[in-house]
## 1
Amino acid sequence: MFAYASRTRPALSAPRLLTVVSRPDAVPPPLLMLLGMVSTQVGAAVAKQLFGSTGPGGTTTLRLGLGALVLLVMVRPALRLTRRALGLVVAFGVAMAVMNLTFYAALSRVPLGVAVTVGFAGPLLVSLVGSRRWTDVAWAVLAGTGVLLLAGLGGVPADPLGLLLCGLTAVGWAGYVLLGKAMSGHVDGSRGLALGMAVGALCVLPFGVLTDGAGLLDPRILVLGLGVALLSSVLPYSAELAALRRMPARVFAVLLSLEPAVAALVGALLLHELLAWSQVAGIGCVVGAALGATLARREDS
């Protein structure tokens, strides 16, 4: 674990990532998006190395708990909320807890690229459901084909429980997106995110305590957990929000579609998770479906 930490230290102290936090407007928006995606997936790779000490439940608790603490200090959100806003914040936090807990549990069984791609397919398919355009049906079929290839259709066996957890991640991710959009109409983004993450941390806390409650207080584990929280939550959220303010939403969506490909690349480089050609094709199908749906909608508008 110490060897891995030393190998990823440059990612934690990279000047460009520090610039994202201190002066995000000095970085071009596309580069901000790329740095945010790389930061998220490097954080997931670091988290995977923590599983031997804290398990997925403990790692999720550290990520959400420490991430919420950092955001609450940064944002200092007012706690007075309407009943409607409070309900949305709680629901958003529960969705965040489900998404993160099942994602880390899936990571203990399947490669990073597979877990991210299947999870990413959740909100993508939700966005295509109910569309009356035949092109969106085609993109949904392409995304579904990609998921099937990752599930073993291409001849590469996949862990059944791992795939089930990936499916739950997709459900949680879809809920996270839908509830986040609903919540933004009642609570501003940074405030809602900080409060929602605090709710999510409380939801996963029992899983962390049951896994290794005392181990979560180990200084070395806390430092690595803080690194995961910063890489997977604080830095990418800051980068994406700053980028979204300075680029059209369609361009933002196009760049975000590359997330599964970035995850597969980070998994190969940092975790040595080399995927079979059928799995690479599955990731390509999901990325292609996301890009195609986004570009087609821009042409229609």
Note: Residues 1-20 have pLDDT under 50 and may be disordered.
## 2
Amino acid sequence: MASDTQDRQGGQGGPLLEVDGLCVTLFTDAGELRCIQDLSFSMRRGETLAVVGESGCGKSMTALSIMDLIPKPPAKIVGGRILFEGTDLVQLPDDRMRDYRGNEISMIFQEPMTSLNPVMLCGKQIAEGLLVHNPDMAKAEADAKALDMIRFVGIPAPEKVFKSYPFELSGGMRQRIMIAMALACEPAMLICDEPTTALDVTIQAQVLQLIDRMRQETGTAVMLITHDMGVVSEMADWVLVMYAGRQVEYTRASELFAHPAHPYAQGLIDSIPSMDASGERLYAIPGNVPMLNELPSGCLFNPRCPYARDICRREVPGFTPVDGDEGHRVACWKYTDRWEEGR
């Protein structure tokens, strides 16, 4: 799925972002809750990585950890590294991290109405980010750049929208303002946390097309957090499947849909409605994602897995290549030599 633009701008080059063994714990009155466990993946410029899974799987917490926006307390990164162009973001002090946040790495949140300042003009909110990261920039120049960004995201009557408050705009237009804010400083990486939540289908398609066009034109790496497997099949180059705070599968998008390895990934794909299955009952994975204070032993998916054996209930599987393919990894005993002994 990689484009010529990606090749020109380094989509196949060295990693832009490397997450290595990330562990995040919530320290609560009920005890220590491990919400992210030993998470590792990488991203390159010009590529789209989709992070998928049910609600409560740790997708948003992963994004907030990269941006250093996890709620402190109770959350704390207790292990691992987040390397951005070789710099470990976990070790940066707050003032240094602010230089990266919004400038090198930007984020589009789920609900723009809760992310935009309701008493500040939309254009001024875009310009504010430019001025924070470019102290020498004149206000008039920042306003002009903000207006250009409103045009770039395809909003009609940009001059009018520049002088509008968020409540005067539709949900789709507010989401475009969020995208304009995120792209204003030309970041190397954009995190989209379910950017089409609460939007109608037509506007969803327009917003996703805008994000993909931006990726192709600028070479920005995109992390797309979603539960919509249809969106993943259209936009993603790579897919990270998460379950209860752990990675269970990581591979190319085309490979995931053709040959899903983990039973959880298989269940997610089987849950996609099909035009060929008209009248049939829609498949749903049985059970629910476990609470963080009630995680099962062994493989976390074993209570819901149709293939679970004793070894799945006793031991946590490693994250291993599928048939020797380093570009397709899975956390499942089925793909190891110990599967037959696990009955």
Note: The mean pLDDT is 88.
## 3
Amino acid sequence: MEAKELVEPVAEAVRAVAAREILPRWRQLAEHEVTQKAGPHDLVTVADREAERCLTAELTALLPGSVVVGEEAVHEDPSRYAALAGDAPVWIVDPVDGTRQFVRGEAGFATLVALAHHGELLGSWTYAPARGDFAHAWRGAGAWLAGERLTTGTPDPTRPLRVAHSHPDYTTPAQKRALAALRVDGVAPRPCGAAGLEYLAVARGELDAIAFDWENAWDHAAGLLLVEEAGGAQGTWAGQPFQLTGGNATPFTAARDRATADRLLALFRAAHEAHDAPTGPPPA
């Protein structure tokens, strides 16, 4: 697969589906077009479902023999996630990343598409239609936004690291304890918005890092490749790269450079080791 064969056709498909299925419903949703999945913060709309349905058809037509792992389809049938470990090329799709923002009528949502094969990310497309931002990346060919190459750069050493982390509304007590490792001098953490747009902010050098503790591939695949191709780094606290198929030691991070990633991972590692350390007096 060559970048020149897929980058533009996929971009055109994403733009077209967003124009047809997402933007006309932005700020126009009826009450019955929004439902809950796992809880009050886990929403799905008719735009999510229809956009994923259309993207599934268009992306598999662009690459015969490929399959789709999409957020809404996996919600209906969790066994579909296993395709990430299969032999076929996989399109990883989040039709509306930031559904809560979309439902509120805010502009901070995006459509995320990534292409992977045998667990390796090959292509990435991030489109924020309400903002007009479209970024893409291809392994070995860089990351791009509006025709300009993205470069993460390095954080300003005179200011605290700006880090977006998993929103408290979506975290368990154990995950909150793990993310509390960010509350130290030299780090300025804040809850994240739509994951795909936070990754884009890192790739643009506007945010120093992200730290997440959930693994859903559709939230991370596009952003991870975008950050890496812009010069950034990623990894889990256990010292391994993030794996699309799951089983990662979380929290994990994607950052503007390797030093920043390592700094945050060291905080998570120390917190994990402290939590697992035995308490009380040593045995006699």
Note: The mean pLDDT is 93.
